Amino acid sequence: MPELPETETIARDLDAMVCGATIAGVEVRKADVLREADAEGFADALHGLTIAHVWRRAKLIVLDMRHAASAAPETLATAPPWRVVVQPRFTGGMIVDDGSLSEADRAYVAVTLHLHDGRALHYRDVRRLGTVALMSPERFTKYSTALGAEPLDPKLGDTEFSGLVRESRQAIKVFLMDQKRLAGVGNIYANEALWLAGIDPSREARTLSEQERATLRAQLCAVLTASIAARGTSFRDYRDARGERGSFVEQLAAYGRAGEPCRSCSRRLVGTHAIDGRSTVFCSYCQR
C-alpha cells in the first residue's frame, strides 16, 4: 500500500532520526525479502558503514551509505559504497526501535540494522511481499532511470505532464499508476486525483483536453502534498518510522467509499474492478 506520500514520510523521518548512525551489526531473519545479495553478503557489506542520507524515489525508500569517519583515509576517499533500496509494496515499512517496540510489531521484522547507539532500524513486512535490495550507486542509477517522472518534481510542469498524457492510449487511471511513466502514484491517489479533477478513470488518456490535463496535474499534486502533510494514509498496516498512523484517511473522497454519497453531488459512488483489476471508486455524475 505505501505510495509516494507514505514512503516520503518514512524517508523524511529516517533522514532526521538515523543519519550519522553507524551500523554495528545486521540481522536477517527472513532472507526471502533480500534482492541482489544473500544474507551473509548483505550483512558483510553494511557492517561498519554509516547512514549518510535517506530519501525517496518513486515508492522506494533509499538509504545512502558512506564509510565511517574512523575508516582508513584510502577507504574514505572511495565512492559511496552502497545504497539500501527498500520497496515496501503492500505491507512493508521501516521503523526505528529504541527498545520500546511491542513484541507484536517485532513478530514481522524481516531485517534489522543494529545501530551503534543501541537503537535498531527494522524492515518489517506482514506479508513479506516487499523487498530490500543492496545496490551500488551505478546499479541504482540504472534502476532509477527505468522509472518515470516524479509528479511533484518542479521540472514536470503542465507542458511535460500534458505530453506524457497525450501519448498514452491507456485508461487515464492506468496511466497514472504506470511507474514507467509517472513514479510514485498508486491506487489510492489515482482514485483521489481523478475524483478531484472530475475525470472518468476509464477514459483513454489521450482524449483528455489541455485544460483537463492541467487540472489533473494540479489535483494530483494537491492530493499528494496534502497526504504528505497528514503523514500518509493508514488503513491497516502502514505506519511511519515512529510507528504512528497517517491521518489522510479522514480526507479521502473516493478511495474506499464505494456506495457512499459523493461529497460533491451526494449521489452514490460507484465501485468497480473492471478498469485495471484494482478497486476503482468514482462518481458517474461528476466524473466525465
Return the average pLDDT rounded to an integer.
94
Number of strands: 11
Measure the end-to-end span: 27 Å
Number of helices: 9
The percentage helix is 25-40%
The third-level CATH topology of the largest domain is N-terminal domain of MutM-like DNA repair proteins
Count of the separate structural domains: 2
Trace the largest sheet across and list its strands.
Answer: 2-9-5-4-3
The CATH homologous superfamily of the largest domain is termed MutM-like, N-terminal
- Low-confidence segments, given as residue ranges, are none
Using only C-alpha atoms, the radius of gyration works out to 20 Å
Class of the largest domain in CATH?
A: Alpha Beta
Helix/strand-derived class? alpha+beta
The main pleated sheet reads as: 5 strands, mixed
Report the sheet-strand fraction.
15-25%
Q: Could you describe the 3D structure shown?
A:
By secondary structure, this protein is α+β, with helices and mostly antiparallel strands. The protein is built from nine helices and eleven strands. Helices cover 30% and strands 21% of the residues. The strands form three sheets. A five-stranded mixed β-sheet has the order 2-9-5-4-3. It has a four-stranded antiparallel β-sheet with strand order 1-7-8-6, with helices on one face. The chain is globular, with a radius of gyration of 20 Å. The model has no long low-confidence stretch (mean pLDDT 94).
